[in-house]
Amino acid sequence: MLDFLRQPWPWYVAGPLIGLMVPVLLLIGNKSFGISSSLRHICAACLPARIPFFRYDWKNEVWNLFLVAGILFGGLVAAQWLSGPQPVQVNEKLVTELSGYGITNYQGLVPADLFTWSSLLTAKGLILMVGGGFLVGFGTRYAGGCTSGHSIMGLSTLQLPSLVATICFMTGGFIVANWVLPFILKL
Amino acid sequence: MSPVTIKEKEHHKFLISNSDFEVRSLDAVCLNESELKHPWWYNFKYLIAGVFFGIILVKAEVISWFRIQEMFRLQSFHMYGVIGSAVAVGVLSVWLIRKFNIKTIYGEPIEFVTRKLNKGNIIGGLLFGFGWAITGACPGPLFAQVGTGATATVVTLFSAIAGTWFYGRFRDRLPH
């Protein structure tokens, strides 16, 4: 059993399990599945700075902070006790492309050639971590949700704004991954 | 046909003015009174749900930067399979909840909120897409990545919090 859990889970196991987060959160407390709002609650709790957007009682949404704390802990559990020995198996074309940028280490889920403390001192690392993170936080809140809030919860309730947002997430990702990221990785 | 009362109209206004899909307590009328009476430690159920979600994210390699690059280059079906089947299960469960009027474990009716389309869904959506391709992470995976011990991703997470803060700070100057 444990050996089975240690292998990478196929999409048809993981996808439905992720989808089940929707009814589970609704049933155990009438909550809409969504992760990115936790970033807003952190702002509201730590640095509201009299900004109207952050002036609300974040304690009413504290369940969301429990959820993300759980996700962090779940990542730890999976990495400590459920990780398999084999590195991520990706498409050969991607391996060839990435090796051209000097990315060859597939041991971690996050590339050790890019996302490290020491690479923070390089232009590439700064753009990837600080710039990329900023876009994630700014964009999700501007869009009113993220992959979980829009693409899973919003689509599950058949909402047009969520479909539009999801199409834009994918469009933005396609543009940057194919035509912008290569230039950043060459830095 | 039931007449639309003033209260219902105000309720509707509230739902529309809160453009955030994920922050329900701001839908003032929707605020669930009975939920507030629960002691704080009832929130541990969400912590447990989060642990399971975090494990799934890691084991499905959804939080892998490499998998996200594959997805955006159409080199693998994996991510599409994950997201597609997750949505299918979500749609089916929401349909079942509505059809059979299923209540929460505390017997409350389950509420769904609809929102209006705004420009932010498009502009913000594109910006998030840019960030997703660069970091290989959406907000859920950001927390999971930190948990797996890739400690430098704390920087990405803090930067995402800063991005959210800047959005809040300049929100009234942005097109919506």
Count of DSSP-assigned helices of chain A: 9
Number of strands of chain A: 0
- Which residue ranges of chain B are poorly predicted, with pLDDT under 50 across at least 5 consecutive positions? 28-34
**Helicity range of the residues of chain A?**
55-70%
Please give a handful of descriptors for the protein shown:
heterodimer; A: about 190 residues; mainly alpha; 9 helices; about 65% helix; about 0% strand; globular; B: about 180 residues; 8 helices
Task: Describe the structure in your own words.
The complex is a heterodimer of chains A (187) and B (176). With 187 residues, chain A is mostly helical. Chain A has helices at 2-6, 11-19, 21-29, 37-46, 62-81, 92-99, 123-143, 147-156, 160-186. The longest helix of chain A is centred in the last third of the chain and has 27 residues, at 160-186. Chain A starts with a helix and ends with a helix. Helix content of chain B is 60%, strand content 0%. Chain B has helices at 6-17, 33-36, 44-59, 65-72, 78-99, 119-135, 139-147, 153-170. In chain B, helix 4 packs across helix 6 (119-135) and helix 7 (139-147) packs antiparallel against helix 8 (153-170). Mean pLDDT of chain B is 87; it is low at 28-34. The chains are: A mainly alpha (187), B mainly alpha (176). Chains A and B meet through helix 2, helix 3, helix 4, helix 5 and helix 6 of A and helix 3, helix 4, helix 5, helix 6 and helix 7 of B.
Summarize the structure in short.
Chain A is mainly α. In chain A, 64% of the residues lie in helices and 0% in strands.
Blueprint (SSEs and pairs):
The complex is a heterodimer of chains A (187) and B (176).
Chain A: H1 2-6, H2 11-19, H3 21-29, H4 37-46, H5 62-81, H6 92-99, H7 123-143, H8 147-156, H9 160-186
Helix pairs in contact in A: 4-5, 7-9, 8-9
Chain B: H1 6-17, H2 33-36, H3 44-59, H4 65-72, H5 78-99, H6 119-135, H7 139-147, H8 153-170
